[in-house]
Amino acid sequence: MQAEVDEAIVARAKTLCDKGALLACTLAGIGAGKDLADKTLLGKACDAGEQVACGILVREGDPARAAAGCDRGDAGMCYAAALQTKDDAKAIESLVRSCQLGTFAACMQLAVMNQLGQHGPLDPAFLRATYERGCKQGVDQACQSLAYLYLIGVGVEHDPAKAFAIDLGSCRAGEDAAPCARIATAQLLGEGVPADPKAALATLEPLCAKSSMSACVGVALAELKGLGGKKKNVAHAQAALVPYCPAERGSGIPRACTTLGHLAEKAGDKAGALELYARGCSRLWTDACWGEARLTNDAARKKALMDDLCARKFAPACAARDQSD
To answer: How far apart, in whole angstroms, are the C-alpha atoms of residue 133 and residue 143?
Structure first.
């Protein structure tokens, strides 16, 4: 009896669809909740602008519908089109359109790509605006990214204390161990807050045991410097840092790459140090970019790095640039 009722509903919906009722086309296309989906009917509704039908088709993997929806100015469809296409250029184009139409997730994705050098020249103002917007909306990753901007001085004044305060909020939210590890590392090294190596290690070591990369880097730094009661062991600490500085640019923990770069430079391995600094600089880490700027023989790259660092008000870079002019 229920099947007869459902089929009657579908039949009635098809009749109404033929008369131009778009929601009826969607209902008929869905099959009144049964496995009777008719993409032709859903397509008819979607082509006429019925967004529920478009959403169903897109979820089922219809990139053309997503692209068409984007052309009509639907922010969600633009975002769906970006996720579904295999063409990187079209994906970015759709993300930009979706962001312009108000989809924060698209803006956030573009900001991360821009920060990693995967989309256009670095745009500090866009990064700041996007991360501030997201953080105000309670998006934890946006808050963490904003804290990082304050830590490296991109788009904002270099302010480790401000970064600490933002990370503290993320740490208390408990969604991710990374901000807690960064706070503890700041305590370990006295960056923006009073140094308290023992308290820092009390946080870092348990987090490292739970596979927090940032925390493990902090523990290695404590061993490298002999802080918080850790016995100084440079060789062991150096080996411990290596996994957190992979060869792929834009990945890993930039502080690990920078520290390994310092060790390589101290050992007289200029080429090795330059590569390590470049890895750290791909994440915009200030000290890494300074190391790359000092060691590179590429005049254009050196100038670009010096200009960027000076724009961040990194005094040694400004002084070096002024001397070379």
So the answer is: 9
Give, in degrees to the nearest 5, the angle at Cα 14 between 13 and 16. Answer: 65
Rounded distance between C-alpha atoms, residue 308 and residue 250, angstroms: 18
Q: What is the mean pLDDT of residues 212-232?
A: 96
Distances (CA, A) of 81 to 19, 44, 100: 30, 19, 15
pTM of the model: 0.79
Name 169's Cβ contacts closer than 8 Å, sequence gap at least 6: 143
CA 127 to centroid of chain Cα atoms: 11
In tens, the pLDDT along 286-306 reads 999 999 999 999 999 999 999
Q: Which of 201, 193, 142 is nearest to 164 (CA)?
A: 193
- Structural domain boundaries in the chain: 1-69, 125-169, 177-236, 245-325
First to last CA, the chain: 88
User: Please, how many CA atoms are within 13 Å of residue 83, restricted to the half-sphere of its CB?
Assistant: 17
Dihedral (CA of 226, 258, 148, 249) sign: negative
Q: Alpha-carbon distance 50 to 44, whole Å?
A: 9
**pLDDT tens digits, one per residue of 185-212:** 999 999 888 999 999 999 999 999 999 9
Please state, in angstroms and as integers, the Cα–Cα distance from residue 298 to each residue in 274, 280, 314, following that order: 12, 17, 20
Among 85-89, 149-153, 182-186, 198-202, name the one with the lowest average pLDDT: 85-89
Task: Please report the DSSP string for 109-140 in residue order.
Answer: HHHHHHHTTSSSS--HHHHHHHHHHHHHTT-H
